[in-house]
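Lecture notes, unit on protein representations.

Consider one protein chain, 339 amino acids long.
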Amino acid sequence: MGVELSGILDKKEIQFNLLYDKEIAIDAYNSLYQFLSIIRQPNGKPLQDSDGNTTSHLSGLFYRTINLIEKGIKPIYVFDGEPPSLKKETIKERRKNREESRKEWKKAIKEGKKEKAFKKATMSSKLTKEMVEESKDLLDHMGVPVVNAPSEGEAQAAHMVKKGDAWSVGSQDFDSLLFGSPYLIKNLTITGKRKLPNKDEYIKINLEEISLKENLERLGISREDLIDIAILIGTDYNEGIKGIGPKKALNIIKKHEDIFSVVENEEYEIEGLKEIRELFLSPKVTDEYKLKWGELNKSKIKQFLCNRRDFSEDRVKKASDRLDSGLDEIKSQSTLDSF
C-alpha cells in the first residue's frame, strides 16, 4: 500500500515515447497486485484456468509487458525478499482486510449488488508464493530480466536507479522516492479508463512522472524531511499520527528541525522511530544482480500459458510474435548484453 503523499507531490503527465530506450525497474509485487485487482470478470471473479487456478496476474504480466517492450521500454521486474520485521503488523492487517473484503464480496454477489461485488473483489486480491514463482518463470521464458531483492522491492529498485542501472522506478506507491529514487513513473502497467466511485463516469488513466529533486526543491525540504513527513502520516512500518495528512505533516516538519524535535515538542509517540527512519535511509539492498536479457522461448510460453493455463493459442502466438519484434527493436537500440 505504501505511504500517501499525493497531497504534496507534483506529478506531470507524460507520453510513452519519452520512456523510449529507458530501463524501468518495476516493483513486481505492486504490478502483480494491480493485475489481480483489475483483471476480473464483471462479478469480481478473477480469470481462472479449467482447474480453478487464478491467471489474472499472468495475463496482465504477459500482455502488458509486451506492450511496454513494443514501445521501446526496457522493463526490469524487481521482486520482494524478506520483509522487515517492522512490516509484519502491516502484513497481518492486510490479510485481515483481504479476508473481510472477500466475505463482503460473496455477500454482495448473493444480494445482486454487482458494483459493490466488483469493488470488494478487487480488495480481496491475494498474491501467493506459487503465483510469484510462476510469474518469474513466465518472465524467464519471455527473456525479461528479474531481480530478487533481499528485502523491500522498491528499495532495491531505487538503489538500481541511483546506481544508474535503471532510469526510474515503476510503481503505484510513493515509497521508492523515500528510498531515494530520482524518478517515479506511475500507471506504467495500467491501461485504459477507470470508473469513478458511485458514478457512471470514467477517467482516462495517464502515465505520470514524479521527480524527487524537483519536488524537494519546490517544497523547500530534504529527502530526510520527506521521510519524516511520511512517518507522521503513516507508513508500512507505523500507523502515523491520527488527524495528520500530507499538508499538515509538511507544515509540522517545516516548523521543527526534524521529526525527533516534533516528537519532543508535540508529545507524539512513534514506536521504533529511529529504526523506521533508518529503514528508508539505509535499506537492505544488494549489488548481486545481472541485467542481461535472456532468450525468448516461444515454445515454453505456449506450453506454460496454453497447455497448462488454458490461454488462447492464437492470441498467445500473436502476442509472442509481437514480443519477438519488440525485442528486435530493442536490439537495434543497443546490444542486449549491454542492457
